[in-house]
């Protein structure tokens, strides 16, 4: 059995100013071709790592084509996407010329937007379908934050989305996809899918799958998956910072042969979720009220998830409201993790450890990120930005934040970095010599994934809405293409 694999993976913020170019794909989790894909992802907790385990378990040959992932950011220029897609399809055709293939396993995100193509993933799956023909099974894994569309559902045989946030089940979903495609190829099952969209906004802070309220939704998803005739259920929470017609949460049910069962199950689940929409939307607190609650609770460190500047969602990572607040309040043992400011990182390296100089910190990418913080910075430590994730999310993968520095300004510690990589765990801070367990106040530019490595610190966590591009005040995003009505903006 020969199964081709790969993917072009991106979560696109149409609100982020910086386009996502070929270079960003090279600089993201990287661009790998052929055998290099298998060398890179063997034993890692991502979907392709799971595909590889499945290949080993079932004894099929995995034919790696092209795998690339850029960190979330702005629109992908049309020509750059065509270059990547063209190479993928060419490699697929070559693999098919060598010997027929029996199936395709795609590792995609689900919220990719290309200049002129609102449904990037749908376009990609459809293009793969055109090459392999109607009979060859295509099974796709998607992130929890996909903005799913009827187009991609029509083009794939089966879709399997993540069940966790932080996304710690990627390899597991990859194994599930591998198990399913083997059953399809062996004609043990014939999947059919039903798709339902739900018109509401799902707050990031209400998506931590190990906690209420969303844990209840996933318990139902797992119960439904165990019913006879159901092969897989995807509950996707959507990605609101994409101005596309299909933005929003959705349900995909994969059933064996029985379209009516798929349809009625999808309706049941979508009704259950949508009727509880008030539970999934939370207005986040301000910095001041979160700090007040944290101090009252007395559980340190008090962690502020500065989710409006979540680089993991494509924000630029240089918003300054939290840093300025920490300085104004003269908070002791406070850390901002991190500030994307290549100019300052380079200046810190030029000045050297122990140097003090006048400068500005952050606020350079877009006025919406707040004004730069002015003052004297002290250089505490320097780093080339290379580190290895502690996990569980991305455990064992290496990350690169580029030229980096630990600085202090107004008494507040700031990790200054060059690249926009979401701070998922403590490994990067540690590589600069920062001990997060010694901090009383930690702000991270992340919404939920940081829980992978920070929840174990055992303090109190607040998802705040500070001034930055990815605000949770969804009305201010002024979407032009989304469906109407959507709760809570319209009744
Ligand atoms: Zn996600």
Structure report:
It is built from 15 helices and 19 strands. The protein has helices at about 20-25, 35-40, 45-60, 80-100, 120-130, 150-155, 170-185, 215-225, 260-275, 275-280, 285-295, 320-330, 340-350, 425-430, 450-455; strands at about 1-10, 30-35, 60-70, 105, 140, 160, 190-195, 230-235, 250-255, 300-305, 335-340, 355-360, 375-385, 385-390, 400, 405-410, 410-415, 440-445, 460-465. The longest helix has 21 residues, at about 80-100. Helix 3 packs across helix 7 (about 170-185) and helix 4 (about 80-100) runs parallel beside helix 5. The protein is globular. Strands 12-13-16-17-11-18-10-19 form an 8-stranded mixed β-sheet. The protein has a 6-stranded mixed β-sheet with strand order 2-3-1-4-5-6, sandwiched between helices. It has 2 domains: about 1-280, Flavodoxin domain (Rossmann fold); about 285-470, no CATH class. It has about 500 residues and is an alpha/beta fold. The mean pLDDT is about 95. Bound molecules: zinc ion (ZN). The site of zinc ion (ZN) has 4 residues, from loops.
